[in-house]
Amino acid sequence: MNDAADHHWYPVGLLSDITTPRQTLLLGQDITVQGDGTGYQVINAAGQAMPTIQRFGHLWTSPGQPNRDLFTIPETDAPGRRLVDVGSVRVKCSPLRAVENFLDIAHFPFVHTDILGAEPHTEVARYQVDIREEVDEVWATKVKFFQPQAAKSAEGGITTEYMYRVPAPTCAVLYKTCPPRPGEWDVITLFVQPLTEEWCEVWPWMALYDDQSTMAEMISFQQLIFMQDRSILENQIPRKLPLDPGLEVPTQADMTSVAYRRWLKRIGYTYGAQLVAA
């Protein structure tokens, strides 16, 4: 097992769904997730209890001793936000590929046609990417893109502003224009459970200002978006995320991906990554 990977937090289930013991994988190792609505446990293959945290409606665990607390998202505590448990999707791809795809803006018009993007609005304008040393996170800001339907509650196309944040190797947070409340940000997250280096369980979660849509409608909209991504993810070659800059040729639109890969190399996180050409 990758030593760096042992010391991070990973989502392993929705708190609302953990009622009976469930067998799953984490970093290729068998674990059991169990709870009764009042307390939760994760047990490894040796029968030992693993550390747990309850946050963002999910149960989180780590195979080793985490090197820091699980990140927070202060915006999600604001009054009036609706917290949306989307569920999970199992995907045959590297957990790092799943995060990178979430950070990719250029595919919107081609994969999410007439929803998150549309031709001829395919150009990705220059934006800013930083690895913020003080928090050890990757951030992309000043991202703008035209979208025919930016959210379930949106009516008509708008130019949507984004901020992307990578607070952990297998997690990403998207802050985006909130159509019903200009000046506020909707929050959409991607929490990824690495089952193996080439399989993952993806747990989207949202904190939205939306007084019109039903919970089922918001969940269905987000699931539609992710299912459109799934076929792309499962057909990427190589399956693991290349960290060597010479293995894939980036464009200006890929600046966030380049920073993400550089950051992974810097922190020594290589589970689900390809380091050299095959």
Give the low-pLDDT segments.
Answer: 109-118
Q: Can you tell me the number of structural domains?
A: 2
Q: How many helical stretches?
A: 4
Structural class: alpha+beta
InterPro entries: Cholesterol_7-desaturase, VanA_C_cat
Keywords: Dioxygenase, Oxidoreductase
Pfam families: VanA_C
GO molecular function: dioxygenase activity
Tell me about this structure.
By secondary structure, this protein is an alpha+beta fold. It has two domains: 1-70, N-terminal domain of TfIIb; 72-274, Naphthalene 1,2-dioxygenase Alpha Subunit, Chain A, domain 1 (Alpha-Beta Complex), CATH 3.90.380. It contains four helices and 16 strands. It has helices at residues 95-103, 108-111, 215-234, 255-267, and strands at 10-14, 22-26, 29-35, 40-44, 52-55, 58-61, 82-85, 89-91, 128-132, 137-147, 158-168, 171-177, 185-194, 200-208, 241-242, 273-274. Strands 7, 8, 9, 10, 11, 12, 13 and 14 form an eight-stranded antiparallel sheet that branches. It has a three-stranded antiparallel sheet with strand order 1-6-5, with no helix packed on it. The longest helix is centred in the C-terminal third of the chain and has 20 residues, at 215-234. Residues 109-118 have low confidence and may be disordered. This is Aromatic ring-hydroxylating dioxygenase subunit alpha. Residues 91-266 form the Vanillate O-demethylase oxygenase-like C-terminal catalytic domain.
